[in-house]
Amino acid sequence: MKCEVTLKYVNITDIMRGILGFKIADQSDAVKISVSNVIRNCIKRYGGMVRITVQPPYKMRSTGPYSQNHHLNGHIIDICNATGNSYEDVKTAIKMFAVENMGYPYEMILGKIIPKHERDCNTEECSKLIEAAHIIAAENGIALTEAWNANR
Length: 152
What we know:
Blueprint: E1 10-16, E2 19-24, H1 29-46, H2 68-83, H3 87-102, E3 106-109, E4 112-115, H4 123-139
Antiparallel strand pairs: 1-2, 3-4
Helix pairs in contact: 2-3, 2-4, 3-4
């Protein structure tokens, strides 16, 4: 059984004396069962230890026409067309710029910086990538096509 569950939103109910209490926002039976199974599994396999990540409840980046995802990918294509670099290389350069200059999240793997995958970005993080693309394009004299006046 997988020992992991992701809760999109929880309400912090108690934080005192080193104890963190929370209420699951989604009270559906499926969520309650999943959380209970993970907790039972963690008690059995890991002595009750769990890893908890606390983050602001930003919405995930938008997708589809006129979305953040479309905006970012359009800029990546514009930069690729202007420079002749591959899509993956330009995307990596944008992410690294955002890591180094804008606080874009990353993790260290074997001593290397690995930027967060954009599919897991929230709206704030995706905005950093879009702004990084704007800056890189401006610094290199590349005109970007914005979605509201594009014929892609």
